[in-house]
């Protein structure tokens, strides 16, 4: 058994739930099984986007991020459902509870995937036997399929889990890299998107093999330090440990939403930004964090997307302060074209206890005067609801709630109480 668990190495799993949202809906309603199913954001009100779809739908060419109208052309009998995040959160918790029965080192990455370090689990069997047991238990108890990658590090485990879906178990060793990984197009490598791939193509790096043997100076001049990191990944090097506490690390907190319809109405757009700013503020406060940078994302009707950020003078957490910064960014960079999606993010986070305000006497006195008021408002809203007290921005909350569907998601719920 010890031959499966090297003394100086690690055995890492990447567990990836297959077509997660659609699979959860099928587990909840078995009559959906075997049918082409797509989960799409707010399909009733606009040409929505496919969030995920079943493998039966994929046979017709339906893909994630595809516009709904296009998916229906490919599959006229496609079943469309709106996301039910409460249902998905419950399934995700169930999945991670199962993973923690097999290993102490479990790192959630998102709602439907996570890493496990089973290096000390020789008493449970071989890595393949453990993977089969996990896969079977998740299917038996949750009625959900998953794929598992087995490798000596996180990068190779993630790569392996993508190789066979659904219900695949794949082993990827360092010695397998030249035959399995290197011949692939560089865009197929985990961590490389279309834009990065185009930059690599421009310097003659076409395959993962080219990247693995690329010139350090050329890669660094093209992609910065990330170029060297990607080269190491292409050679199977990834020293990152499986870190259960990484879920508590917050580099940024943001929310975005697709508008019910494309809009050029400044008042409506600012109302959306205010709502998003309030959500960001609430999450910052819950975590005891403050943001030192505010970012706004604008996606136009033609799908062109811009992000603009601003370093704020003092760390922020209050919704009105975040809104004012986000509002200025939006008004400065919005060109008046029709807007499809908006997002607000607090970045470069620090713990509230560590925040030091650079305030003059006047601003300090104003902040000190308002702090008890903000705390009182927060307590009242928690007890009686958000509508109990509102700050002085004019917006129709019922209309916002009815017409606006927030398709963003975060992994806050994965933190233990």
List keywords for this structure.
417 residues; alpha+beta; 5-stranded mixed β-sheet; 12 strands; 21% strand
Gist of the model:
By secondary structure, the chain is of the alpha+beta class.
- Beta content comes to 15-25%
**Strand count:** 12
Largest sheet: 5 strands, mixed
- Fraction of residues in H or I helices: 25-40%
Radius of gyration: 24 Å
Spatial shape: globular
Side by side, the strands of the main sheet go 5-6-1-7-8
Individual helix count: 15
Uncertain runs? 357-365, 390-409
Description:
This protein is an alpha+beta fold and 417 residues long. The chain has helices at 20-28, 55-58, 68-74, 85-99, 127-142, 154-161, 177-180, 194-202, 208-212, 216-223, 225-234, 266-287, 319-333, 361-384, 397-403; strands at 12-17, 37-40, 50-53, 79-81, 105-110, 113-117, 146-151, 169-171, 252-263, 289-300, 305-316, 339-351. The protein has 15 helices and 12 strands. A hairpin with a 2-residue loop joins strand 5 (105-110) and strand 6. It is globular and about 65 Å long. Mean pLDDT is 85; it is low at 357-365 and 390-409.
Secondary-structure blueprint:
Layout: E1 12-17, H1 20-28, E2 37-40, E3 50-53, H2 55-58, H3 68-74, E4 79-81, H4 85-99, E5 105-110, E6 113-117, H5 127-142, E7 146-151, H6 154-161, E8 169-171, H7 177-180, H8 194-202, H9 208-212, H10 216-223, H11 225-234, E9 252-263, H12 266-287, E10 289-300, E11 305-316, H13 319-333, E12 339-351, H14 361-384, H15 397-403
Parallel strand pairs: 2-4, 7-8
Antiparallel strand pairs: 1-6, 1-7, 2-3, 5-6, 9-12, 10-11, 10-12
Helix pairs in contact: 4-5, 10-11, 12-13
